[in-house]
Design goal:
The chain is of the alpha/beta class. 42% of the residues lie in helices and 18% in strands. It contains eleven helices and eleven strands. The protein has an eleven-stranded mixed sheet with strand order 3-2-1-4-11-10-5-6-9-7-8, sandwiched between helices. Strand 5 and strand 6 form a beta hairpin. The radius of gyration is 20 Å and the shape is globular.
């Protein structure tokens, strides 16, 4: 991003959202000033239509203390955070909302409601998290997955994690995203499971078990990001130096990578959970307003892509 002019990759996403209709969004337990302000501001920018779900008196108190104008926003009363999560999920199940957004409750509490067998938003896909990152030193938006949900994903889990990320990037307008499957080295080694998984994922993509993207791996981080580094290792790759998605070996590696990009490379990161019946905007208290707005923008584009897919199917 050009910090001096304020123009960057996230701003290009927002520009593409300008003509899209805002999407009804159930905001679970926005009972803290930052969480409430983020939802209200995204509503003012016509990215979402917030439905505030939580203790009504508490939400109004937070709005008053923070000088946040709720206007005519709908508030659905729920006594506590657990009930707020369940009710917000119910609104999505009933079709009253197309997106789910985390307020000030814990992520695990919201996701527990999402994965509830009889009342949740489960699909045949495994849930996975993506960081949508604006890294000043990289030439486009970069997706890091999964750095927040799947601790030690199996090969089968990684298939869903990869497909979820591909589908998201396609919804953002990239018809053939490139996926770098990361490991510590760029060669297959039977003692390093990440390299074996990477090779399997690439072969699975060749056989149509993963669709819509161009996969390569195993790739070490330098070979994935830098064309020069790849050339020095003798790697010929369509992905090296130009990935849209970094698929990490496990949560620990992904979480460290995302936070290193944020705190050492000054990257902004938006967050979504994919694989459910609706995209889930998963923000944290540490997120900047810019990151929160970007999360809503990406979710909006994903929701509209889902609409088009449904209309085509019917």
């Amino acid at each position: 991003m050009n910090r001096a002019t304020g123009t960057g990759k996230y701003e290009l996403l927002l520009e593409r959202c300008r003509n899209l209709e805002p999407v009804p969004t159930a905001v679970a337990h926005p009972c803290e000033e930052t969480a409430l302000a983020g939802a209200v501001e995204a509503g003012a920018m016509r990215l979402i239509q917030p439905i505030l779900v939580g203790p009504a008196a508490k939400i109004r108190e937070v709005a008053k203390n923070g000088k946040i104008d709720l206007g005519n926003l709908r508030i659905v009363d729920a006594p506590h955070s657990h009930a707020s999560a369940a009710k917000a999920v119910e609104l999505v199940r009933q079709g009253e909302a197309e997106l789910l957004m985390k307020g000030s409750l814990h992520s695990d509490e919201l996701l527990s409601a999402v994965i509830a067998r009889d009342t949740g938003l489960r699909t045949g896909r495994r849930l996975s998290h993506v960081f949508i990152m604006d890294v000043p030193t990289y030439h486009k938006v970069l997706i890091v997955t999964d750095a927040a949900i799947n601790i030690a994903p199996t090969l089968e889990d990684k298939v869903d994690i990869c497909q979820n990320a591909i589908d998201l990037v396609v919804s953002l307008g990239n018809k053939k995203p490139k996926i770098a499957i990361l490991a510590a080295i760029e060669t297959v080694n039977s003692k390093m499971q990440a390299t074996i998984d990477a090779a399997c994922l690439c072969k699975m993509a060749e056989r149509g078990q993963i669709t819509g993207g161009v996969l390569d791996g195993p790739l070490a981080f330098d070979n994935a990001i830098s064309v020069e580094a790849a050339k020095m290792k003798g790697i010929t790759s369509e992905v090296a130096g130009d990935p849209d998605i970094l698929l990490v070996p496990d949560l620990e590696a992904g979480n460290m990578l995302a936070k290193q990009l944020s705190f050492l490379a000054n990257a902004d990161s938006a967050g979504l959970v994919l694989g459910a019946r609706a995209p889930i905007i998963l923000t944290s208290r540490a997120d900047s307003v810019r990151s929160r707005i970007a999360s809503c923008a990406v979710a909006l584009m994903s929701a509209h892509a889902r609409r088009q897919t449904f209309q085509s199917a019917t």
